UniProtKB/TrEMBL annotation:
Keywords of this entry: Coiled coil, DNA-binding, Sigma factor, Transcription, Transcription regulation
Annotated InterPro entries: RNA_pol_sigma-70_dom, RNA_pol_sigma70_r2, RNA_pol_sigma70_r3, RNA_pol_sigma70_r4_t2, RNA_pol_sigma_r2, RNA_pol_sigma_r3/r4-like, WH-like_DNA-bd_sf
Residue ranges of every copy of the RNA polymerase sigma-70 region domain listed in the record: 31-100, 118-186
Protein name per the record: RNA polymerase sigma factor SigF
Gene3D superfamilies referenced in this protein's UniProt entry, alphabetically: 1.10.1740.10, Winged helix-like DNA-binding domain superfamily/Winged helix DNA-binding domain
Segment forming the signal sequence: none
PANTHER family registered for this protein in UniProt: RNA POLYMERASE SIGMA-E FACTOR, SIGMA FACTOR F FLAGELLAR
SUPFAM superfamilies (UniProt xref): Sigma2 domain of RNA polymerase sigma factors, Sigma3 and sigma4 domains of RNA polymerase sigma factors
Limits of the RNA polymerase sigma factor 70 region 4 type domain: 195-248
Amino acid sequence: MATQSSSMHYRGMELLVSYHQHPSVLVRNQLVRLNAGLVRKIAHRVSHQCAEPYEDLEQIGYLGLIRAIERFEPSQGCAFSSFAVPYIRGEMLHFLRDKGSSVKIPRRWRELQTRGERVRETLTQSLGRVPTDTEIAEQLLVSVEEWRQTKLATQNRMPLSLDALVSVQVDTPITLGDTLVDHHYQSLQSLEEERQQLQQALSQLEDKTRAVIESVFFNEIPRKEVAEQIGVSPMTVTRWIKRGIEQLVSGLQPSVTPTES
């Protein structure tokens, strides 16, 4: 089983390198089929957290997988599965966000709003003016606070468009979407920064130590198999990994510049 898994990883990396050098639909489709299990796994998890069908999430996930394939750089030394997960999951979450309907309000408040509108019309005719919230609440036999919450929930039921104009600065329109923080982009940016830091720290290791760590942790090759490939004992591989991790931790620690007294 381990050998088969290693073979798939090697095959996947070969295809990724090939696609990076000469992009083609044929190679991309091979990569999609090879990583379909990753999409299905994420779709299965997300489907348990929402009401959308698993099949729809799976199809959307493939868009994220394709985007990851197109942006992945094999030379960076990062495992493709780790690189692709944020893209696949992010595409599904964007789909759920965009498809989200109006805000759901409790059934009691919906019914109360309907009754309140009828009471408002009746009181307006009998009083000759628009009734106050207190007067409407008394007729509905509810508190003024609950009636006001019902009205507020109804008013806020429909979401604002991200294209809604907020202000204009120096003849440049500012929309609601422009003021929102893109957490998905920030997350990807943070992951990219961490990946670059890790890659820089890896480049400081000895060649054999770096090769062992990349094989075990990035390519997910069993330590015993790595030991056989390079002609050393599994214990030696373990020692190299331990030493390499210690050096990585040291290299990734933020540098502290001593202040002058």
